[in-house]
Design brief:
The chain is built from nine helices and eight strands. The chain is α/β, with parallel strands linked by helices. Helix 3 packs parallel to helix 4 (109-127), helix 5 (161-169) crosses helix 9 (291-301) and helix 6 (180-201) packs across helix 9 (291-301).
């Protein structure tokens, strides 16, 4: 996002955690004139708005009620906004056993929340000519696997559109035990491929996937298994494996504001790390830069957007 005044930003999942701090950090930048807080719960959004106004001394926050797991809600929220959105931060996400439940559209909640709702939102802005400069999707090192947390790397036999579609509707696990951690990593992987696809289609804008890294002070770990929850909340901070909330949020803010971050790239921590400098993940896993895989991800996703 350029430093010219009068910029409008939208942040999904902005009522708490990383999304809320992204909104706070962007509000402290003088070029930011308006921030849409896109949240599924109006009461929580209202509380967040008041807290952000108190923290920043600025009254530039507008609430948009939007549940990204519900495509109708996304379209309604989009219709409730006006003007250009110079920067879109697609932060909302979910993980945990309940995330494997199917939405009314036959999509796992983990995929609907982390990816599909954001597809409808971003592509809606593009179709209306309302995306000004940059879109940032919250990624995760889980897209390359997290051995330290016993999360397997997403792997596919062919990475065809048909195979990727089985992730979206949950049938990938039809013949075996459902692994919601792996499903989360798969969703983030497919999301990163889709963003790279969009970057190729729209070279005049920036489409970047950025992982906030292992971040303390969020609610993300609340719904995962107890051993992993304890590790995320207590063990990892004690061992220096994770970083503070404002650091994780700043990664996404950098995705918006740092022009040296290249469109189409998935940025996250270095290999075997969960924090530290951002690195192009295609340098670790070249398949992320495979145009055919990107095309297949886009095709699979759009089987579920109507």
């Amino acid at each position: 996002m350029s430093t010219l005044a009068g910029k409008t930003v939208m942040v999904t999942g902005a009522n708490g955690g990383i999304g809320k701090d992204v909104a706070r950090q962007l509000a402290l930048r003088p070029e930011t004139a308006r921030i849409y807080l896109a949240c599924r719960n109006r009461d929580r959004a209202t509380t967040a708005k008041a807290e952000l106004e108190a923290a920043t001394g600025r009254h530039i926050f507008d609430i948009v009620v939007m549940d990204v797991a519900d495509l109708g809600s996304v379209r309604a929220g989009l219709a409730a906004t006006d003007g250009s959105v110079d920067a879109l931060v697609m932060n909302a996400g979910v993980i945990g056993p309940r995330s494997m439940e199917l939405t009314a559209g036959g999509v796992t909640t983990v995929f609907a929340t982390n990816v599909l709702g954001h597809v409808v939102l971003l592509e809606g802005l593009l179709a209306e000519g309302r995306l000004g400069e940059v879109a940032v999707l919250a990624g995760s090192e889980a897209a390359r696997g997290l051995p330290k947390l016993r999360m397997k790397r997403p792997s596919f036999a062919s990475t065809s559109a048909d195979e990727l579609a089985t992730v979206i509707d949950g049938s990938y696990f039809a013949d075996g035990k459902t692994d919601f951690n792996r499903a989360f990593g798969q969703a983030k992987y497919i999301g990163a491929l889709w963003m790279a696809y969009l970057a190729r289609q729209h070279p005049d804008r920036r489409f970047i996937t950025v992982s906030p890294g292992a971040t303390t002070g969020t609610q993300a770990a609340n719904d995962i298994a107890l051993p992993l929850r304890i590790a995320a909340k207590y063990v990892m901070p004690a061992l220096g494996i994770s970083h503070k909330l404002e650091v994780g949020a700043k990664r996404l803010v950098d995705g918006v504001t740092d022009p040296t971050l290249s469109s189409g790239v998935f940025y996250a921590s270095a290999a075997n790390k969960l924090k530290g400098p951002l690195v192009d993940q295609a340098e670790i896993f070249p398949d992320l830069a495979n145009p055919s895989f990107q095309d297949h991800a886009n095709e699979a996703i759009h089987r579920f957007t109507t």
